[in-house]
């Protein structure tokens, strides 16, 4: 039993390394084009058009860059939020309002996040959509993240009761893996968008 658990963890770590390496190989031009194409696909989604409060992230480590989409959301006068590591509740995220003037800082994973300001915190239940970063995904909507379980915890209400923000995974096409090894706490996504494809929901 112990052996099978650890071999599954080992495989997950190997897949993370492989896909993170692949996405870091993308050139700045490929990254820019992918970000623009992703933005157009997201703009066309009814789930986005009908939403007002949308969480994104700041790209790091070769992740697809949501900034062109964030710029469009701002133009549409929709509200954008970014994750911040919870200062007391280990493994959890807070979501803070984000605009062009938001003071930013760098967290312990070297990821940019808004400076903690309780006035800007948006309760997760009041978000309409959370666009999640991911390291790898498969055709059933399963995702592998960076390994902290942050989004699995954030989306557990949605997973169990279909309550709270609707999750949309976003990534590069090269992050697709035909079948990922899953654990019981992993939250599969109902919709994943890449520059060239849409997975799961019709
Ligand atoms: N809902 C949860 N409650 C408690 N612990 C959880 C929950 N979801 C995940 N975890 C824990 O988080 C750890 C990391 O999970 P996992 O390897 O699936 O991360 P990930 O999905 O890659 O990361 P992320 O969600 O941050 O993108 C696991 O040890 C798992 O036990
Ligand atoms: Mg997980």
What key attributes describe this structure?
Rossmann fold, alpha/beta, binds adenosine-5'-triphosphate, 11 strands, binds magnesium ion, 6 helices, 202 residues, two-stranded antiparallel ribbon
Explain what you see.
It is a single chain. This protein is α/β, with parallel strands linked by helices. The protein has one domain: NagB/RpiA/CoA transferase-like (Rossmann fold, 3-Layer(aba) Sandwich). The chain contains 6 helices and 11 strands. The chain has a 7-stranded mixed beta sheet with strand order 3-2-1-6-9-10-11. The radius of gyration is 16 Å and the shape is globular. Magnesium ion binds next to loops.
Would you tell me the structural class of the helices and strands? alpha/beta
Run of helices and strands: HHHEHEEEEEEEHHEEE
Strand content: 15-25%
In CATH, what is the homologous superfamily? NagB/RpiA/CoA transferase-like
Rounded to an integer in angstroms, the radius of gyration calculated over CA atoms is: 16 Å
Helix content: 25-40%
The separation of the N and C termini measures 38 Å
Task: Describe the sheet with the most strands.
Answer: 7 strands, mixed
Which stretches are low in confidence, meaning pLDDT under 50 for 5 or more residues running? Answer: none
CATH architecture: 3-Layer(aba) Sandwich
CATH topology: Rossmann fold
Shape field:
globular
Q: Counting H and I runs of at least 4 residues, what is the number of helices?
A: 6
